[in-house]
Amino acid sequence: MEERKFSEQELVRREKMQELIDKGIDPFGQRFDVTAYSKGIKEQYGEKTHEELEEMAVEVSVAGRIMTKRRKGKVCFMHIQDRDGQIQLYVRKDTIGEEAYEIVKKGDIGDIIGIKGTVFMTNTGECSIKVSEYTHLTKALRPLPEKFHGLSDIEERYRRRYVDLIMNEDAKKIAFTRPRIIRSIQHYLDSKNYVEVETPVLNPILGGAAARPFVTHHNTLDTDFYLRIATELSLKRLIVGGMDAVYEIGRLFRNEGMDRTHNPEFTTIEVYKAFSDLEGMMDLTEGIISNAAMEVNGTYELDYKGHHISLAPGFKRVSMTEAIKEKTGIDFNEHMSFEDAKKLAEEHGIEVEAHFGYGHIINEFFEKYVEETIVEPTFVYGHPIEISPLAKKNLEDPRFTQRFELFICGNEYANAFTELNDPIDQYERFADQLKEKELGNDEANEMDLDYVEALEYGLPPTGGMGMGIDRLVMLLTGQESIQEVILFPQMKPRNK
């Protein structure tokens, strides 16, 4: 094993650790009962005068990490950082005693301490704590990064998120905002009588989305399983079973590239409602996003990627073919042959792969000419049947389906269907997917006979929607990189 090498600062800190041990103090501490946090103290007492606080004599127990420290003789000022922020401490040798003050003197930036004291207001108007008891809790053996630059390497911020959270107030704010967004979604759906459920992460059959999977092996069964790429098929089985309205918030896994909007493991919500349809899912999706914006940010308005947008209900709705026609002048609603469509694709620099049908070409045109131009929240509906194996056909034109995707500022946020509930049609769609797989589409679904059998028991007309939680958090916190909103994003090895 390679011998660890320590910097001069790290060696000094280890010497101080030994000094604590020699004094009979555990350098890595014991339980400390916290009664207050920095933010709450400032909110409750920050407007009081020095005299008022002196009369109130409010006693608190606070714990946190030393972030600043300045000592002059028998007095020491320091700021400690807890869960909610920072608060100043005022420590006097004649108050806490000589032995405890020796520990204060040897404390380093980054050490974790617990204190008891009274809230007071300094002459400069800073709400602070006058320390009466000082307890060492944890010795930091590594120094924190320099205050003003922190972790300057952005990849190191993601690799060492624990340091990022200490040094970067924005990172901590995002970390606390993310669960608030998720709670807002849960509250909204619970209020509409949806039931939150859990479904398997390991699946024997690939299905529910078009994506490359991670494959693992179950030793006892001697069988390969996929980490789920979607929760869709399991959730629709629950609708067959009569649960009426269900949702699941959970991790999905797709063995694909990493960039500013993609991570191999990510969080989604999928929602299914019996007796609903595409229109119902549009209304629900608007409600989820608008409610989250108001509950978390207090407004529908926000600036993102250089655009000012509104998340108020009433999102724009446009068909995929209309959007393409607006940008290119080509009307794919017209009945044209595959060869005609292929020729148009070649003229527009679109590569036609071996497994492509008419609908794949339409989708390529949309992705090339339309997707990134959408700024305001927009439901794009009417996807081709070839790329929508689980969506119900459009009754007027069976080349297209009752499906939408929601786009905001060029990014996709949600995908929804009027669910395909015809078991015969579903079997044929799965069979078509198998043909695509044989032609080289490694994202095609497999045949899920158990799901077809479930449909044969009867799936009521149903609306379903899936939304990326990470991207919604990015939007509501103003972040343009998915790594900022995932606490531990997948990173390339340091040597690659």
UniProtKB/TrEMBL annotation:
<protein>
    <recommendedName>
        <fullName>Lysine--tRNA ligase</fullName>
        <ecNumber>6.1.1.6</ecNumber>
    </recommendedName>
</protein>
<dbReference type="InterPro" id="IPR006195">
    <property type="entry name" value="aa-tRNA-synth_II"/>
</dbReference>
<keyword id="KW-0067">ATP-binding</keyword>
<dbReference type="GO" id="GO:0005829">
    <property type="term" value="C:cytosol"/>
</dbReference>
<dbReference type="Pfam" id="PF01336">
    <property type="entry name" value="tRNA_anti-codon"/>
</dbReference>
<feature type="binding site">
    <location>
        <position position="405"/>
    </location>
    <ligand>
        <name>Mg(2+) 1</name>
    </ligand>
</feature>
<dbReference type="GO" id="GO:0000287">
    <property type="term" value="F:magnesium ion binding"/>
</dbReference>
<feature type="binding site">
    <location>
        <position position="412"/>
    </location>
    <ligand>
        <name>Mg(2+) 1</name>
    </ligand>
</feature>
<keyword id="KW-0963">Cytoplasm</keyword>
<keyword id="KW-0460">Magnesium</keyword>
<keyword id="KW-0648">Protein biosynthesis</keyword>
<comment type="similarity">
    <text>Belongs to the class-II aminoacyl-tRNA synthetase family.</text>
</comment>
<dbReference type="GO" id="GO:0006430">
    <property type="term" value="P:lysyl-tRNA aminoacylation"/>
</dbReference>
<keyword id="KW-0030">Aminoacyl-tRNA synthetase</keyword>
<dbReference type="GO" id="GO:0140096">
    <property type="term" value="F:catalytic activity, acting on a protein"/>
</dbReference>
<feature type="domain" description="Aminoacyl-transfer RNA synthetases class-II family profile">
    <location>
        <begin position="180"/>
        <end position="493"/>
    </location>
</feature>
<dbReference type="Pfam" id="PF00152">
    <property type="entry name" value="tRNA-synt_2"/>
</dbReference>
<dbReference type="InterPro" id="IPR004365">
    <property type="entry name" value="NA-bd_OB_tRNA"/>
</dbReference>
<dbReference type="GO" id="GO:0000049">
    <property type="term" value="F:tRNA binding"/>
</dbReference>
<dbReference type="GO" id="GO:0005524">
    <property type="term" value="F:ATP binding"/>
</dbReference>
<keyword id="KW-0436">Ligase</keyword>
<dbReference type="InterPro" id="IPR045864">
    <property type="entry name" value="aa-tRNA-synth_II/BPL/LPL"/>
</dbReference>
<dbReference type="InterPro" id="IPR002313">
    <property type="entry name" value="Lys-tRNA-ligase_II"/>
</dbReference>
<dbReference type="InterPro" id="IPR018149">
    <property type="entry name" value="Lys-tRNA-synth_II_C"/>
</dbReference>
<dbReference type="InterPro" id="IPR044136">
    <property type="entry name" value="Lys-tRNA-ligase_II_N"/>
</dbReference>
<dbReference type="InterPro" id="IPR004364">
    <property type="entry name" value="Aa-tRNA-synt_II"/>
</dbReference>
<dbReference type="GO" id="GO:0016740">
    <property type="term" value="F:transferase activity"/>
</dbReference>
<dbReference type="InterPro" id="IPR012340">
    <property type="entry name" value="NA-bd_OB-fold"/>
</dbReference>
<dbReference type="GO" id="GO:0004824">
    <property type="term" value="F:lysine-tRNA ligase activity"/>
</dbReference>
<keyword id="KW-0547">Nucleotide-binding</keyword>
<keyword id="KW-0479">Metal-binding</keyword>
<comment type="subunit">
    <text>Homodimer.</text>
</comment>
<feature type="binding site">
    <location>
        <position position="412"/>
    </location>
    <ligand>
        <name>Mg(2+) 2</name>
    </ligand>
</feature>
